[in-house]
Structure prediction request, 225 residues.
Amino acid sequence: MAVVKGNVLGNLSGKLGNLSARTVQGRTVLAARPSSFAASQDPDSIAVRQKFAVTANFSKNVLSIPILESIWNSVKSSKITAFNAIFKNNFQFSTVDRPTDQNIITPGGFLLPVSSAVVGANDVTVELTALNNATVIKGFEEDVSFAAMIINHNPISEEDAPFSIITLSKDVDTFDFGNPYTLTMALHASETAEAAKYQDSILLLAVATKDDYSKVVQYSKTFAQ
Prediction:
């Protein structure tokens, strides 16, 4: 490793031939890169890498839903990203080939009062009892946002990936917290075609309440089926 003093080279970062460069406290540090790297083929190491890939895919999809990204950004430590927070909370629940019904899309919250949930060929339909029976709703909570993930698995053809994730969201303004609600979330034609490649599915669902400035006030635990 070599340290370049002064500012002759400027602030460098990245790869320089067989060297890697980074700037630390105004100094450029050059270090030799390994000539080659061979990942361990030990079964346990392979399993960890597979779970890592599954959880990374899952975490990326959670962040693709704006309301979930907002929730995770509000609770994460300042030292890590929202992606890392989601990953940390989900790695233990993933298997080597797919997420499970133990994976979460929200970090805690109130119990979502679902009376029935059906994942159909073209849409998702969920029957909810009154939300104000599940949590205390304050006067400034006006709107809600629903977020859902469908994890399709057990592919019909061996040529397809072990699992596929479909993300859905729906905003409802001036929500009636005192009455039951039927949530319907339609799938696009491409999503319907993708889901048809698989024999089984897992539904993960959550809701967030918002004030009239669209700021999240509270949110539910992840409902899984």
Notes: The chain has a mean pLDDT of 90. The first strand starts at residue 2 and ends at 4.
